[in-house]
Each structure stands twice: as C-alpha cells, then as structure tokens.
Task: structure prediction
Amino acid sequence: MTATLFRRADVPALPTPTDPSAPPTAGAPRARPGLGRPLGVGLVGLWLSLIVLLPLAALTVTSFDEGWSGFWDAVTAPVALASLRVTVGVSVVVALVNAVLGTLIAWVLVRDDFRGKRFVDALIDLPFALPTIVASIVLLSLYGPSSPLGIHLNATRPGLLVALAFVTLPFVVRSVQPVLIEADREVEEAAASLGASGWTTFRRIVLPTLAPAVISGTGLSFARAIGEYGSVVLIGGNIPRQTQVASQYIQQQIEIDRPVNAAAVSVALLAIAFATLFVLRLAASRSQRREEASA
Amino acid sequence: MRTSTGTRLTLRTVALGYLFALLAVPIGLILWRTFGDGVGAFIDSIRTPAAISALNLSLLIVAIVVPLNVVFGVATALALVRGSFPGRGLLQAVVDLPFAVSPIVVGVSLILLWGTSGWFGGVENNFGIRVIFGLPGMVLATIFVTLPFVVREVEPVLHEIGTDQEQAAATLGASSAQTLWRITLPAIRWGLTYGVVLTIARALGEFGAVIMVSSGFPGVSQTLTLLVHSRYIDDHNTYGAYAAATLLMGLAVLTLLLMTVLDRKRSTT
Result:
C-alpha cells in the first residue's frame, strides 16, 4: 500500500501552495475545450456558490442577526465557552499525542523491519476509510460499558481523547513517512561516526528534517479534531461543561431552536480552523523558502 | 541513524502497542461480537426492513451525488487548470473549503439556508419541496462534504497531460465536445475514477452533516450511518449496531482495496 493513500485527497493542497509555474494558460490558443470559457466558469461559480458559499454566508449572517453583542454573548455563554474550551483542550492534547506517537510509528514503519510490517502499514489508513460513527461503535466495544477489560471511558475526557486519536491517527504518520524515506542517511551515519549518540543524532539531524512534516500533520489533525462529531457522539457522553464538545453544543442549540447560538459557535469553530490552516500554510511556505535558499 | 537493538525493540513495541490498543483490538472485538453468533445472525440483522431501506437510501444518495460531482468536478478542474479569469485563486480556496468545515457546521449552514425560516425557505413554503428533513437536504449535505474529491484528483492529471493533444484535435477540426469526449476524458479516467471512489466512500460514511438535515425515521429517512446510531442510542440494540457497523466497515475495506489497485493502475499508465 502506498504511503500517499488518502493523503492526496483528504489532506488537500492546503499546506502546499499551488505551483505557480504550472498553469499553461498564457498564450494558449482560443480553440480549447469549452469549459475553460466564460460560460463554463460561470456555471462552476454558480454551482460552488449554491453548494458551499451560500450556506456558509447564511451561517455567518445569522450569527450576527442580533449584532456584534449578540454574537459575542452567544459565544461567551458559559456552556458554549466551556464546550469550546473542552474542544480546543482535548484537540491540543490529541495533536501532541499524534506528533510524538505518529512520528514514532512512521519511524518504525520506515526504518525497522519485522514480519507483518506491510499489514500494519495498511492498517494506518483505516481510520480515514471508516465512517466516523463506526469509529465510535468500535471504540465503545472496547472502552465502553460492555468492555471486556473493565475499562470504562464512556462519557469521560479520556474517552474523547481516544476517539479523536483514532480518527486523526493517519495525519502525522502519513506526512512524516515519505520525508523519512527520502531523508539522507549518510548525514546520520556521519554524525554517528563522529561519536554522536543515537538520541543526539535524532535530535540534531533527523528531527530538523522531519519538523515541517510533523508540524503540518499535527496541525491538520488539530483542525480535524476540533470539528469532529461522529466519532465522539457515542463515547463522549455530551455532558455540558465536562465532555460536551463544540459540535455537540451546536447540534443541541439547533434542537432547542436557538439558531443564532448555533451559528455563532459554528463561526467561532470555523475561525479556529481557518486560523490553524492559515498558520500551517505560512509555516509551509517559510520552510519551502528556507529550503530554496539553502539549495 | 544507528540504533541499538534495545532501542529499536522498545520503539517497535510502543508503536505496535499503540496501534494494537487503538485500532486492532477494538476492530477485532467488533468483528468477534458480530460474527460470534454465526454469520446467520449477522445476515438477519442487516436484512431487516429498516436496514434494507437504509442501504437503499445510502445508495440512492450515492447515485445522485456521484454524477453531479463528476460533471461539476471535472468542469471545476478544467476551469481551474485551463481557465484564466479573475478570481481563480478564490475558486481554488472555495474548493478546499469543505475540508476545513466541521460536518455539524455543514448541517447548520444548510438548515439556515434551506430551512423554512432560512434564506431559501420559500422553496419549501411556496413550492412544498421539503429540503431540510427530506432527501434534497441529505443530498446537499453529501455534495458539500464530497465536493473536493473529484476536483482534487482530476486537477493534477490535467496539469500533467497539458493541452497539446487537445490543440491538435481542435486544429484537425474537432468540436470542443468531441475533444472533451475523445481526448480529455480518456486521459483523466483513472484520476476521475479515484475521485469517484473517494466520493462514494465518503458519501456512504457521512454522518454528522446528514444527521443534522435528516428527520431520521427508521425505514424512511435513515442512511446506514444513521441506522448504526439509532440502533445503538434509540433501540439499545447493540448487536444490530455492531452488525450495521461491520457492514460499513466491509465497504470501507473494499474502498481501500480498490484505491490500492487504482493507485497502481494510475502510476503505470
């Protein structure tokens, strides 16, 4: 199984800025297939507006239906704020767990050799392929009320952690793996022959090479974790102020017919996600520039 | 990097232990609990009227969403790669947007746009077409979350093939429809297929966005994922939930296999 499976689609062009040298548009003759022409572009724009932009516009406008203060009150209502805190807190922990264990797993999959490695490698993609509600059921069977081990994480924050760690597992592994395969091992050997210990070599040589990939994978898993719903809905317990995450709060506000509250917290959640992706993009283009400068 | 055998074994143990506790054991346990009472019980559980109707609804949504995504996805990719127009960068960003939006937020947005008191509430109020809590709502939610797949898989292929062949065809007098049908589409077929597989997998598995806009009646407006949820929460039918989850898991594994095959095909052609 290739290491890039799912990455290309699930982790889109966000961290890698589009290649500016690519579009062969300038000077192309007029006689090209119809969809590049204004009619095609117009249709595409209309479609994207109808499917994506108008719903999000309706969301944003609704969140400000009662003005700035209404928006602010909705986001800072104690239960809403608590749900945002739980969401961000748990997601940060999950992202850090992913950063460490994801890198470790990638290292084992690239540098170590053991029977069944290919199977383990294939297993990594499973969380992206599984529907989130299945992830929920799967984890509940081991960590829920009918746990054969007597571990009950149902309706606890560790339960949230496990669910989010499950669905975000592939991000760091799949972004670090290809970099590790490409990494120049001669430098590491040189460091070792000069007397550096394994840990020093890792810290001074390997980690700096991997850092951009680790950061990108960690950021993407954070962005995914804050919006997650399906995998936490059964195991999270939805207890306000304790285990209720933002998406559950939003869903609850819609159920009790408070669309402005739901919209305001949604906009807050979107803002956190966009900010994360924006920072990632900045970091990616910065490390790319540094690479070009040193090349 | 030179690592001692001890370090290597420790790292291996930690990595495999984590994967074991997080992935392998829970999934194995589900399979064991599903098939523990024999395959017959599993089959009975996924052949109840509610389960069959859920499967049908999921497939119906896929059948509506895939053609729309193919047509508009290819059109969008063509516009992004071949077009030069103001706002191209904006279009790029909009295509990626669905990846950054929580499924629940997708549902809320659709309710606020298409619900009876939303901007487009007139569609339901005046024409009696039920969007939210009806099939159109579930379709709209699924299109939203699957929108980037076809575009993002077709785009790089279009970049790669360039416009030489298309220009040659045009010079030889082919109409733009002929060029699209005979030159462009055959060239992008594997990328397109890959995008379609991703779309199907996500459409079958979507939960958060769909549950927000579905009325969720068993046998009427439940998809497979909603069935898993309602069996566990509403019916306390844990076994039924396990069985339906296993069915979905089977579909997911099938997707993974298909993608591996396609990936090889794509890199050889």
In short: The domain at 67-294 of chain A is CATH 1.10.3720.10 (MetI-like fold).
